[in-house]
């Protein structure tokens, strides 16, 4: 760390990262580990199992649409804190019964609360990054997802078919995360920023389209990975190892991507991330041997949560600070649309083919997204340049759309 100010900012972002650990690592991605047990116990088809992911994505969409008014009313810090608390409640509620509609509702509630956490935490992390003149707090914030994945991967497979107990455990873990992150969710500019700002999509149209395709694609890999492994009778020890390695790769991602997302021009970092992610998903299909699956999980883990970090850096670089909340909320809405449709469509395709189709879906959509991001990076979007204040002399240059 270069200075006490930077150290303090990174420490605050690390505690704030429990937001992505809870809202994403626990409330969204842990379902992939529980899917095989729930599918067997409740006699679901893959389409019905995928619809649970769709419900979570639909709730996420509602939460994304509600975030700007909520922040306007109560501020980013308060919205983050109560979003965390509601996420914990929604997770514990999922264990209450086996009624399909009730489970869909619980998954939707977890998605809505998680969206509020994700957006407001990203805004607060962006403000920390601006204060310490470094992009590290942003990547640290998004890397917190890995902690939730590691916890889920270590705890859930050991519970076997006891999926209700697993949901209770996830709720307790989310409650602990809420308490630890409570004081980290402070934001000096809630009063001014909550009352202003417009969503700026047009200057970042290529990024927005790539993000939409990424959302529809990436979610199917982590949703159906355990089902893919179960179909191949992968031992539980190997499942635990794969999920642990995937989560650790997410935690390691900031060391690899903090500098590229802050310094590489235009959308180069975003296109690279999407390309590596597509290749990692395809790798699992090439040869379903344990070492290959592990390599696929590593490639996926070091990239998929760095994509939102890269998008957030682009938003921060190409919009005014007063527009960050509205623009990030708009991008998260697009993201929610993609990840709502993705699992359901991929589940239908898999019902008529195999679970391998879900990994192919991820590879294809992320490859297309990489091409779009690379093309957008070569476009000259002069509007974005005029909207951004000059970078302060002490601030690290950000990735600006070319």
From TrEMBL:
Region (Disordered): 383-402
Domain of life: Bacteria
Keywords, alphabetical: Membrane, Transmembrane, Transmembrane helix
Alphabetical list of Pfam families matching this protein: MFS_4
Xref: Gene3D superfamilies: MFS general substrate transporter like domains (1.20.1250.20)
Keyword Transcription: no
Annotated TM spans: 42-67, 79-96, 108-126, 138-159, 165-184, 204-230, 236-257, 269-287, 293-315, 327-346, 358-377
Name of the protein in its database record: YbfB/YjiJ family MFS transporter
Source organism (scientific name): Micromonospora qiuiae
């Amino acid at each position: 760390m270069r200075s006490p100010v930077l150290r303090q900012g990174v420490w605050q972002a690390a505690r704030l990262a429990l937001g992505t650990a809870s809202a994403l690592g626990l409330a969204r991605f842990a379902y992939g580990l529980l899917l095989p047990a729930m599918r067997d116990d409740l006699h679901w088809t893959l389409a019905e199992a995928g619809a649970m992911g769709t419900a979570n994505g639909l709730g996420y969409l509602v939460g994304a649409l509600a975030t700007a008014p909520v922040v306007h009313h109560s501020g980013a810090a308060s919205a983050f804190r109560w979003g965390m608390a509601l996420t914990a409640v929604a997770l514990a509620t999922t264990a209450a019964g086996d009624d399909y509609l009730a489970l869909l509702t619980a998954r939707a509630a977890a998605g809505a609360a998680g969206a509020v956490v994700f957006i407001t935490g990203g805004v607060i992390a962006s403000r920390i990054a601006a204060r310490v003149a470094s992009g590290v707090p942003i990547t640290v914030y998004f890397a917190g997802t890995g902690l939730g994945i590691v916890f889920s991967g270590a705890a859930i497979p050991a519970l076997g078919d006891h999926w209700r107990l697993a949901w209770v455990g996830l709720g307790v873990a989310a409650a602990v995360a809420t308490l630890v992150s409570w004081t980290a969710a402070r934001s000096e500019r809630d009063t001014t920023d909550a009352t202003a700002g417009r969503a700026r999509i047009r200057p970042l149209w290529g990024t927005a389209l790539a993000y939409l395709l990424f959302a529809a694609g990436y979610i199917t890999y982590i949703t159906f990975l355990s089902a893919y492994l179960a179909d191949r009778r992968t031992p539980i020890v190997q499942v635990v190892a794969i999920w642990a390695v995937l989560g650790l790769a997410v935690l390691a991602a900031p060391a690899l991507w903090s500098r590229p997302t802050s310094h590489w021009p235009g959308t180069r970092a975003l296109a690279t991330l999407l390309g590596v992610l597509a290749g990692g998903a395809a790798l699992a299909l090439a040869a379903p041997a344990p070492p290959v699956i592990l390599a696929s999980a590593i490639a996926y883990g070091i990239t998929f949560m760095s994509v939102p970090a890269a998008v957030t850096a682009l938003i921060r670089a190409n919009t005014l600070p007063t527009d960050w909340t509205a623009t990030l909320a708009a991008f998260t809405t697009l993201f929610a649309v993609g990840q709502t449709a993705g699992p359901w469509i991929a589940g239908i395709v898999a019902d008529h083919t195999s679970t391998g189709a879900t990994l192919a879906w991820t590879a294809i959509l992320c490859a297309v997204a990489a091409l779009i991001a690379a093309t957008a990076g070569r476009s000259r979007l002069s509007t974005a340049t005029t909207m951004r204040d000059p970078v302060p002399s002490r601030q690290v240059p950000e990735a600006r759309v070319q």
